[in-house]
Amino acid sequence: MPDPEPTPSSRSAAPEPVAANDNPWRRHSRRLAYENPWIEVHHDEVTRPDGQPGIYGVVHFRGRAVGIVAIDDEDRVVLVGQFRYTMGHYSWEIPEGGVPEGEDPLEGARRELREETGVEASTWREIGGLEIPNSISDEIGFMYLATGLTQGTAEPDPTEDLRVRRVPFTEVMAMVDRGEIPDALSQLALERVARLRGSSYEAVDPVDAAGSSEPR
Amino acid sequence: MPDPEPTPSSRSAAPEPVAANDNPWRRHSRRLAYENPWIEVHHDEVTRPDGQPGIYGVVHFRGRAVGIVAIDDEDRVVLVGQFRYTMGHYSWEIPEGGVPEGEDPLEGARRELREETGVEASTWREIGGLEIPNSISDEIGFMYLATGLTQGTAEPDPTEDLRVRRVPFTEVMAMVDRGEIPDALSQLALERVARLRGSSYEAVDPVDAAGSSEPR
Fold first, then answer.
1. What is the gyration radius of the CA atoms in chain B, in angstroms?
2. Does ipTM exceed 0.85?
3. Which of A152, A192, B76, B123 is 20 to 30 A from B173 (CA-CA)?
């Protein structure tokens, strides 16, 4: 990494900066404020980086998120539509799901793709990890590019009322540009794949690409 | 949008599908399980899309997220480093912040950039909105590309212990590829800008680009 650039200090009376990996927060107590099968909400009493007392509410996810950009031999992306209870609107997204701790994220991604869409893929490539949104929660996720698709029968979770469709990759990116795919994980995974493919959106082979020295 | 592709139904006894915009969930009660100045956690009793009783925990954000890709005349991106309490590690990100309801997101973005980094920008372009993560929360955000930078003095929030540095755009994308910028909002905003610039990462002018018909 390049050297940090010197920047003007905004607080002349500030103590010497801590080393980059030192935790400037101190936790004094933690109370479980809420839990359900998917999340825990903790209320912490802390000393803040400035030395003053404060609080922090942390939303802990009991699973990890996975998102899959699944592209078929006709260069169409598998999209899933559902009504998002939290947002109060219908949402088209890439297949996503929660992977319980203890399950391998890739296996979880295979399972979610199969359950939500009935699709199986012969080749899988991890295209990145992420943390969302790290100011308030500790959720992490993984993104995959899946190709070599075969269609089976979906087995959605009872809480899911899903529609599945396949949309050409270039049209999916146009949907992103029109704001029709608001979901952050979907947008990030699709942008990542678009960059892998280059400005011409030429398809990449996940197997070959994974073994090359190109940026993923 | 293209026509939905017919897909095999996984539940032969399922009722007729609802119209895409109909909410298949029914909420019967809502209890405030936790709140602090930044979030509210609601515990809802619901009827699920399959007609069975269920629960839903919703994390409501009292503000909206903004993230700013600020690029100076030497094509360097302004990054902010801080210890993320929720994740338990140090994190380099683009400048981000929470914008209270009632404040314009662009004004909030200008304020956060100025407070966190001391940087002001002469040209601003919105490069997309997002929802994160919509299975459990209702947080929305906006992303901006800011150029024409001038350096002033930062005024960070007392809870923030920030470092600021400027890193060449190509090196920032290499950091993304090495997993050194895990934050989802940062990754998405940077990928969006990378796509705007094209495979050569040639700088785009926000003002000109906003008026063009090119994909954002």
1. 21
2. no
3. B123
